[in-house]
Specification:
Helices cover 71% and strands 0% of the residues. α5 packs across α10. The longest helix is centred in the first third of the chain and has 22 residues.
Length: 211
Amino acid sequence: MSGATKRRSGGRPTAGAAALLETTILDQATAAFLAEGYAATTIEAIARACGVAKRTIYARWSGKPALFRAVLERLMAKWLSAAGDWAEADSLQAALDGAAERILAVALTPEAVALHRLLIAESARFPELPLMMHQAGASEGTTRIAALLDRAVENGDLPSLDTAFAAEQFLHLVLAGPQRRALGLGPPFDEQQLLAWRKAAVALFLAGVTS
């Protein structure tokens, strides 16, 4: 009997087997949601792909919304970890450039592009999806940029400003063009074009907030 299916003497799966099964379900759910969309994905299909009964999934998540939220939370945790901490830099410009580089690296992954496409396509029918994104940590990037700008204001590197608003505008400036192209609305940037875009976006943002 493999480690994934090994059970305790009482018939219950071991903690390791339970964790592995949960990972398998989330992997299959992630693939299904991103490939098929929210509406078309069913618990039945996910259970079939995992080789388990529907009740096995319902025992862990109350239904499709809860499972989708779990998928979002795991994706956000992975992406935020990959983005790292860009606060340690020699200058505000270097910190913002590092933030833009890491944010773009995450936002242009196939998973992130697929999720962005899903939200655009299905938010009108399922208005709860953007709220789920927010609750899963989608606003963390804005919070981190705002904190970076707060420190710059405190240090006298920037004039007083609404840092939450400025952080949101920074992310729009950095992400909007590359994301649109990644969705097929124009030819995608190559590495050099993306670098030029990032540098220009940071320079434009700094010119705006320091004027």
